[in-house]
Amino acid sequence: MICCRDMNWNLEKKSKCLRVTLDTSSHIDLPIYSAPEKEMKKITKTSLNSIMSTGSIDKFFALRKVR
What we know:
By secondary structure, the chain is α+β, with helices and mostly antiparallel strands. It folds into two domains: 2-31, no CATH class; 34-67. It is built from three helices and three strands; from the N terminus they run H-E-E-E-H-H. Strands 1-2-3 form a three-stranded antiparallel sheet. Strand 1 (10-13) and strand 2 form a beta hairpin. The radius of gyration is 18 Å and the shape is elongated. It starts with a helix and ends in a 5-residue tail after the last helix.
């Protein structure tokens, strides 16, 4: 919020995101995602497995263990 104020941007709360209005013709929507820690671990593992199976990730990142 301090950053927005310093830059003269407007911060607006929406139901599923925060909207940062940069000027009269442009804005950025920042999605808000939340889940319990156990669910996030499951989501992360599932996502990594999917990425690894498609071969679309660098080996360095694919081999990192999700804790």
